[in-house]
Amino acid sequence: MAARRALHFVFKVGNRFQTARFCRDVLRMKVLRHEEFEEGCKASCNGPYNGRWSKAMVGIGPEDDHFVELTIMASETTSLATTSWVSRSLLARLSAMLRNPVLKVTLTVSDLQKSLNYWSKLLGMKIYEKDEKRQRALLGYADNQCKLELQGIKGVVDHAAAFGKIAFSCPQKELLGLKDLMKRENHKILTPLVTLDAPGKATVQVVILADLDGHEICFVGDEVGPKGSKLLDDAMTADKSDEWFAKHNKPKASG
């Protein structure tokens, strides 16, 4: 499974102005790609919202050979939600990685052994470390890639405070087999094999799964894209969201 590679983690946010400022000015990340959409994504990239939304890919290094740390995703409808889908504490922890590459992404799981079977036996990740006493395991597709840490907890994993999606690249020829495997094993498939064609990005095929605790996992065939920072700035200037919220007397979600 060495051909698979960790790509990025997605945070869905209500206020992209604050999030973009934090990522660029505090974390010193660069905007690698930005896209604006007039309607919902057929792969449910923007969650359960059907209105306008945007996506900005930011990171310390290029997508071709770096784990891209964050995807900013927001929509007019998302901003009406009472809670933002990104927690401040999580962004605060990102600031500690300014001078270092991203080493791992941690997901909490309710049953460590069952999750290990899912991620290693079905998704093909190598187990690098396992500590049953601390209920912790470290997995990855290659030694030099960002790792996935599974942390076992008592009880049910709660996605209410913050929610996101981890993405991996995958040879296109493996996507259909991956979908069929999950179907045979009776595991959840959020988006079957679908083709996406977006501005600033090559046409890709995508499969989105959900693990035993509902963590979204996106496998894509390719990842590319230029001119991100200017596209994001232009879109934020043109969206007039502050005027919309003032007109409707609604608070704008905090990033």
TrEMBL record:
Protein name stated in the entry: VOC domain-containing protein
Domain VOC: 101-222
PANTHER family: GLYOXALASE DOMAIN-CONTAINING PROTEIN 4
Cross-referenced Pfam families: GLOD4_C
Family: Belongs to the glyoxalase I family.
CDD domains named in the record: GLOD4_C
Repeat is among the record's keywords: yes
Lineage: superkingdom: Eukaryota
UniProt key word rRNA processing: no
Keyword annotations from UniProtKB, A to Z: Repeat
